[in-house]
Amino acid sequence: MPNLDLHKYEKIMEIRNMRLGDIDEIIALQSSCFPGMVPWKRDQLESHLAIFPEGQFVAEYDGKVIGSCSSLIINFDEYDDRHTWDDVTDNGYITNHNPDGYNLYGIEVMVHPEFRRMKIGQRLYDSRKELVAHLNLKSIIIGGRIPNYHKHAEELLPREYVKEVQLHKIYDPVLSFQLLNGFTLMRINPNYLPDDLQSNKYATLMEWNNVDYQPKTKRYYKTSEPVRICVVQYMLRKIDSFDDFANQVEYFTDVASDANADFAVFPELFTTQLMSFLNERSPSLAVRKLSDFTEQYIELFTTLAVRYNVNIIGGSHFVKEDDDNIYNIAYLFRRDGTIEKQYKIHITPNERKWWGINAGDRVRVFDTDCGKIAIQICYDIEFPELARIATDMGAKIIFTPFCTEDRQGYLRVRYCAQARAVENQIYTVISGTVGNLPQTENMDIQYAQSGIFSPSDFEFARDGIVGETSPNLEMVLIGDVDLEILRRERQSGTVKQLKDRRHDIYHLHYKDGGK
To answer: Which family does the entry's similarity section mention (predicted)?
Structure first.
């Protein structure tokens, strides 16, 4: 008998994280699983993957998506027990996901009708439980449908129906399954899903406790999460060598370290100070000579970040890459010695005309020991889409190194940074250059007043200004921002710009680029 090719008989079952390419199948799957209910929108699922990709799972069988489940992390104590699905999911976009929360909240599980009784739901729930164990979360909480309740609604109240299911006198495909999976009943919520007519809009609030959970005392009693920022308003002056530049930079890093700052922030293009001894009159050639210092610049700041134990936003620097193009790049030098970079996305007419700068095309958000941050270089802060994308990706602080030559240009940066802080409920930081380089083309005059800005509400600084420097003087600004206040205000502030967005009439679509 010839050897059989066993591969052609295989039908692989896999539980894996959701991918962008699954979205169309998931939307079609939901229509099959929940006829009559409003299915996911593409931008909602894209938001899930952008904010908490590890919490979204699919069941793939023989190359086809036959099941899925979605979730986010919250601190359940911050929500009313009678919350609705819209409350706890920010209308399905999970922009209220809190990576420092205690509870995984499951917002949907579905299995294609043709593939039920294959323990697909069990496998998806097991994946959630493994995630909870991996992340050391306290529990899984779900608002479960009771889809057979409409058959008994005339003779039984919701609590009576649930009791009958618990006693195994009535079978409910969702509640019975959840009870078998170790979930316990917390309460019954009315009007949970307005379009869930089978459940008469009711849902059972249920919880599965992680018995391996290790409490972290600091999370129970956190009343503040301060981050100290040292903003350097850097004066451009003629120097004779890279060592002169390094000495000036180290001085300010030392100042930040002495103040126990978590971040030291330098301005955009402050490395153009090196042009003052390059003796190159042509701006386009000068930036290429400047890019020759890239390795020295990176080595300097990496060393300083580790030596002085401070995360450094290293301003920005002109870099020539392998494609022979020049880019304006801001670097994050973490105090653990790791490095990240953000390309400037919007190039000013001046940068194109004098230096031939090329644009990046990717919004980055970086993890730090003080939470997620973003860097948006000068002109980029004037485009509100970028800040909103970064906020949706989890950024709590946006750093904006800038370089402007007149007050009008400076005010564009400042006003836009303050607007971004208000509309995204984040902190923004601007750091600019002052002084002059008389013999350097296109860098001869500077205007700046650096600052740290907050949202505008009662718990924040008056006028939304944490602090600001004096105009056009070399100095530092040291200020504290509190990420815990930011989190609380997003949930219960006077206004809630993030939660109150009208996703039903508009959305922002981000095409992730390469640089």
So the answer is: Belongs to the carbon-nitrogen hydrolase superfamily. NIT1/NIT2 family.
Residue type, 86: D
b/e per residue, 265-275, with b = 16+ CB within 10 A?
bbbbbbbbbbb
Which residues lie closer than 8 Å to 38 by C-beta, 6 or more apart? Answer: 195
**Using CA atoms, how far apart are residues 171 and 175, in angstroms rounded to an integer?**
8
User: What angle is formed at CA 502 by the lines to CA 508 and CA 34, rounded to 5 degrees?
Assistant: 90
Is residue 344 annotated as a catalytic residue, yes or no?
yes
Residue pair 454/464 in contact by the 8 Å Cβ criterion: yes
**Residues 145, 501, 386, 315, CA torsion sign:** negative
- In the 8-state DSSP scheme, what is residue 133? H
The pTM assigned to this predicted structure is 0.72
d(CA 44, CA 41) in angstroms, rounded, equals 5
State the Cα torsion 259-262-266-267 to the nearest 10°: -120
Mean pLDDT of all residues in the chain? Answer: 91
CA count, 13 A, side-chain hemisphere, 131: 27
Cα–Cα distance between 433 and 244 in angstroms, integer?
17
Distance in Å from the first CA to the final CA of the chain: 57
- What order of strands is seen across the sheet that includes strand 139-145? 13-17, 57-61, 64-74, 103-111, 139-145, 203-209, 184-189
Query: Beta strand 427-435 with 226-236: parallel, antiparallel or unpaired?
Result: parallel
Active-site residue (options: 268, 351, 468, 474): 268
Burial 342-373 (b: 16+ CB within 10 A, else e): bbbbbbbeebeebbebbbbeebbbbebebbbb
Point out the catalytic residue in the list 201, 341, 344, 499: 344
Nearby residues of 39 by Cβ (< 8 Å), 6 or more positions away: 27, 30, 31
**Which 3 state secondary structure label does DSSP give 378?**
helix
Q: Tell me the pLDDT tens digit for each residue of 31-87.
A: 899 888 888 999 999 999 999 999 999 999 989 999 999 999 998 888 877 788 988
Report percent pLDDT > 70 for the chain: 96
- In angstroms, rounded to a whole number, what is the distance separating the alpha carbons of residues 270 and 401? 9
Q: Catalytic site residue 108?
A: no
Identify the H or E element spanning 355. Answer: helix 349-355
Residue among 33, 69, 378, 416 flagged as catalytic: 378
Q: Report whether 357 contacts 318 (CB < 8 A).
A: yes
Which residues on adjacent β-strands are paired with residue 188? 204
**Amino acid, single-letter form, for residue 183:** F
Quick one: which H or E segment has residue 158?
helix 158-166
Tens digits of residue pLDDT in 264-299: 999 999 999 999 998 888 888 989 999 999 999 999
Mean pLDDT, to the nearest integer, of 429-456? 90
Whole-number pLDDT of residue 439: 76
* 499-513 confidence digits (pLDDT tens): 888 888 888 888 877
